From TrEMBL:
Topology relative to the membrane: Multi-pass membrane protein
Main location as per UniProt: membrane
Entries under InterPro entries matching the protein: Cation/H_exchanger_TM, Na+/solute_symporter_sf
Protein name: Cation/H+ exchanger transmembrane domain-containing protein
GO BP annotations, alphabetical order: proton transmembrane transport
A Gene Ontology term for the protein's cellular component: membrane
Residues passing through the membrane, by range: 6-27, 39-62, 74-96
Organism (species): Shewanella benthica KT99
The Cation/H+ exchanger transmembrane domain, residue ranges: 2-89
Entry keyword annotation includes Transferase: no
One example GO MF annotation: antiporter activity
Keyword set, alphabetical order: Antiport, Ion transport, Membrane, Transmembrane, Transmembrane helix, Transport
Amino acid sequence: MGNIILGAAVIDDIAGVILLSVLFNFASQGALDVGDTMLLIAKVLLFLLLTPPVSRALLYLARALKPDDDNSGYEVIITMILICFFLGLLTCLALLRYSVASLSV
């Protein structure tokens, strides 16, 4: 039951991001750009396809580097560090994109 709720929440968030992006582009440009919308959907799908294998590989790497006698919640800590790292990277990329876009306007 929990997986169904989590899956529905993820789908809801993805639909919200796409809809918000389409509405923002429509409000700022005055017209709907299908190319930008398709590019956004492709990026979201690429992210969803690449995230599980990359995170699984990084977790296996972290497990290989972990000492055998350590039971201190190492995997949880590594997972939280990776989440913070990728969120920071995403924020930097978004800021870079929008700062470059605002310079060209």
